[in-house]
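Consortium newsletter contribution from the modelling node. Members have asked for a concrete example of what our holo predictions look like. Here is one, prepared for the methionine sulfoxide complex that several groups have been discussing at recent meetings.
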Amino acid sequence: MSGAEAEAPDQVRGAPDYESLVQRVAALVEGEPDIVAKMATVACEVYWSDGRFDWTGFYRVVAPELLKIGPYQGGHGCLVIPFSRGVCGAAARTGEVQIVPDVDAFPGHIACASTTRSEIVLPVLDADGQLLGVFDIDSDRPDAFDDRDAAGLRRVLEVAFGGKDA
Ligand code: SME
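And here is the predicted structure:
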C-alpha cells in the first residue's frame, strides 16, 4: 500500500494532523509555567483543528475527588463535576482515556448540551504524574472518536503539561 492510500481513511474522516498540532502547541506554550494559560491555549488550538470538535475544555482537580471547569471553547459547560459522575469523573477516577461513542448509552453522562452525541475525555498529568484534571472533547456526531484521537491528544497534553519534548 502506498503512503497516500494509507493516509486516505484519516483524510476522509477529517482527523487533524496531530503531529502539526503537537508542534504548534509545543511552540506556543514553550517556557510558560502557568497551567491555566496553557489550558486556554490547548483548548483553543484543539477546538479549531477539527470540525468534529464541538466543545473542548478542561476540568481541573480543585479538591479531593472534585473537578471544576477550566478554560474551554464552545457553549456553556457545567461548573462542577465530582469524580463519581459523568465521563469526566470516570477519566479522573480511573486515570484512563474514556471514549464514548454514544453518550446516551453511558450511565451518568452529564448533558451540558443536548446536541452532544459522542465524546472523548483524557486525564491530564503533570511531569511528576500528578493528576491536574481532565481534557474533555464533545462532538455532535455519533462515534466521532477513536484510538488515533486518543494517541494524538495524549501527545498534545504531554508536550503542554508533562514536560515532554514535541
Ligand atoms: N461530558 C461531561 C460533562 C461536561 S460537558 O460535556 C462540557 C461528562 O459527562 O463528564
